[in-house]
Design brief:
15% of the residues lie in helices and 51% in strands. The chain is built from three helices and 20 strands. The strands form three sheets. Strands 3, 4, 5, 6, 8, 9, 10 and 11 form an eight-stranded antiparallel sheet that branches.
Length: 349
């Protein structure tokens, strides 16, 4: 009977110890991705147009800003933009504001934007046109807005003013919204894409408007209101697991560092590559020793946040309390042994 009670108490003790180990090893720090570089730029307008089959007329991006890969804040402004193609004004705008800003490190990101007022090009009239984009370790997003926009879809008689047919441009066009129109008084046709979005190598480019002239007099492309965003993310940030007084740190690039007391550090850099640095007292001639370190009795240093240690000590208290409770229940006593046997009056045992 007592052997069975002892076996039962041992099983309870083993279960309690297992629960205690699980509670202690469950204390872990968060993992945060690291942004190692950012890509950001913005532009007011650019283009290349050919008239009557001649050489292209190139309109360089203006104004422009580009973000350093390490981050920062870049802004630019222009009171207006004018692209002249031969005797005609191909593109005219009012005020232009562009910007790009970003930062590297944990939670790094980049945001770019471009905004133009009073845009006139090829039968397109827009009071305000803008684009924006954002990129972080979670991905990229972009959008474009059009305020007071319309374009000419038909021009029955190029020699008559006022007979043009207009179509409204959506205020919040979906990505790659395409519309067709005609240049009034000329008869050329074009396709314009609003909120044009393309991604290359994780970098998102948003063009508020991309006009493609299809002739017969003028051919070429004009891009208006461009925003560019992208980030380069390295391995995740360090993840720290605390087991009472043992700290293991695993970086996102596969490097694992284990600290167990003053001066004892084990670093694993990729599969199968392990270096153990021991305390000077363990290796008098060198601090790099074979694994494991020579036997050295050193006190462990408590690591981890205040909340981590609180959880660990609470788990220990619960475990010890359970062990004490099981010990009290298992102590044999008078009640457990039952009534004592007495001597018989007839002298028989």
């Amino acid at each position: 009977m007592r052997r069975g009670q002892l076996r039962s108490r041992r099983l309870h003790l083993a279960s309690a110890i297992a629960v205690s180990v699980v509670l202690f090893t469950a204390v872990a720090g968060p993992s945060v991705a690291q942004v190692t570089a950012v890509t950001g730029s913005a532009m007011g307008a650019s283009g290349s147009v050919s008239l009557f089959g001649g050489p292209p007329i190139v309109f360089n991006p203006t104004p422009t800003v580009t973000l350093p890969s390490t981050g920062g804040n870049e802004v630019a402004n222009a009171p207006s933009i004018l692209f002249e193609a031969g005797p005609a004004d191909l593109l005219t705008t009012g005020n232009v504001d562009i910007s790009t800003q970003g930062a590297t490190g944990a939670g790094g990101s980049v945001t770019s934007s471009a905004s133009l007022d009073n845009v006139l090009i090829g039968g397109i009239e827009i009071a305000e046109l803008s684009s924006t984009c954002t990129a972080n370790e979670g991905g990229t997003t972009g959008s474009a807005t059009v305020s007071g926009g319309r374009l000419v879809t038909q021009d029955p008689d190029p020699n008559v003013d006022g007979d043009e047919v207009f179509a409204d441009i959506p205020a919040n066009p979906a990505p790659n919204t395409s519309m067709t129109g005609v240049v009034p008084g000329v008869g050329d046709t074009y396709t314009v894409v609003f909120n044009e979005q393309t991604t290359s190598g994780g970098v998102l480019t948003v063009n508020a408007a991309h006009l493609t002239l299809m002739g017969p007099n003028a051919t070429g492309d004009v891009i208006i209101g461009q925003s560019v965003c992208g980030v380069t993310a390295g391995g995740g940030g360090a993840t720290t697991t605390t087991v009472v007084d043992l700290t293991t740190t695993t970086a996102g690039d596969g490097v694992t560092t284990t600290t167990a007391g003053p001066g004892v550090t084990t670093t694993t850099a990729g599969p199968g590559v392990t270096t153990t640095v021991c305390p000077p007292t363990a290796c008098p001639t060198t601090t790099v020793c074979p694994t494991p370190c020579p036997t050295t009795v050193t006190p462990l240093v408590r690591t981890g946040s205040e909340s981590d240690l609180t959880i660990a000590w609470a788990a220990l208290a619960l475990t010890l309390g359970g062990l004490l409770l099981m010990g009290v229940r298992g102590v044999p006593g008078a009640a457990a042994d039952g009534p004592k046997r007495g001597r018989r009056d007839d002298g028989m045992p």
